[in-house]
Design goal:
single chain, 118 residues
């Protein structure tokens, strides 16, 4: 039993050492010639005009949330699709209920106008 854990300890040690060594080597070997231009914040190469902090519309967040909902739906339905021929009727009905709930949420968002770009 202890012999099996030894492989895990060796693997974890190596997996932590290699990235740390790469980051350390990059910090030691990289050229260091700082200048005010290099230390400035790079947006698009053009100086900003006006305030750089602006208020975004809440609609952008709604699009992000809707994308996240359907992205998670894809991740959760993938195991059902892989094991479809081995599922029981209850599991298939559970997946259909899950998709129906998300479809109802999409219809609700659509009717509320959350998908309209203004």
């Amino acid at each position: 039993m202890l012999h099996e854990w030894l492989y895990l300890v060796i693997f974890l040690t190596i997996s932590m050492f290699i990235p740390a060594a790469a980051i350390g080597a990059a910090a030691l070997l990289s050229p260091k010639k700082p200048s005010p231009l290099k230390n400035s914040i790079y947006e698009c190469g053009i100086e900003t005009v006006g305030p750089s902090r602006i208020q975004f519309k809440a609609q952008y967040y709604l699009y992000g949330l809707l994308f996240l909902i359907f992205d998670v739906e894809t991740v959760l339905l993938y195991p059902f699709a892989v094991a479809y021929n081995r599922l029981t009727l209850f599991a298939v009905l559970e997946a259909v209920l899950f998709v129906a709930i998300l479809a109802a949420a999409l219809v609700y968002a659509w009717r509320k106008g959350a998908l309209e770009w203004t």
